[in-house]
Design brief:
mainly alpha; two-stranded antiparallel ribbon; 6 helices; 2 strands
Length: 176
């Protein structure tokens, strides 16, 4: 599930898994009266991290609060224009709407877009595909020349190329 995801989305998925693990430990402790330290050891998380998560006096940091405000704006802009904006245009739009705060860096917008799965829906350029021909569709040999040799170096083909250089034509010939 993590393979092929941007690194910011991978970090968000890992964080979500940890939060779900904390909630599972809490529920199992409440319902079955299992020991918290054993469950934390089984889940390979620090017991202090579990207690920090459920600390009632814990307040979210300024960055978390700011990210929540920016995230709400990004989601609203993405819904209003059907996710047509990439990171740069989204950054400009968010900065326009949140002009009372300090400017938001485009990598912050990219991180929050990755976490929420918002990406530009603009189609990417695709190389033109060449039509593959089958032997039935190949043009027939109208000159009736034999291009198949019975032995190596029996059939040599010369091709000419004319290149305009120094106000005259230079002819190159190649034998294959």
């Amino acid at each position: 599930m993590l393979a092929g995801q941007p690194k910011y989305r991978q970090a968000a998925i890992r964080r979500r898994w940890k939060l779900e693990t904390y909630q599972l430990i809490h529920d199992c402790h409440q319902k079955y009266n299992w020991k918290i330290d054993l469950m934390c050891k089984w889940a390979k998380i620090a017991r202090s991290a579990y207690y920090k998560h459920f600390d009632p006096q814990r307040q979210s940091s300024q960055r978390e609060e700011r990210d929540k405000r920016i995230e709400a704006k990004i989601i609203a802009i993405a819904k209003s224009n059907h996710s047509l904006f990439g990171t740069e245009k989204m950054t400009m739009a968010v900065n326009r709407q949140m002009s009372d705060e300090r400017p938001i860096y485009h990598k912050t917008v990219y991180r929050l877009m990755c976490i929420n799965g918002i990406s530009s829906q603009k189609p990417r350029y695709q190389k033109p595909k060449f039509k593959h021909t089958t032997p039935e569709k190949t043009v027939e040999n109208k000159l009736k020349r034999e291009f198949n040799a019975s032995k190596p170096i029996r059939l040599l083909i010369r091709s000419f190329i004319a290149i305009a250089a120094f106000s005259s034509l230079v002819r190159l010939s190649r034998i294959s």
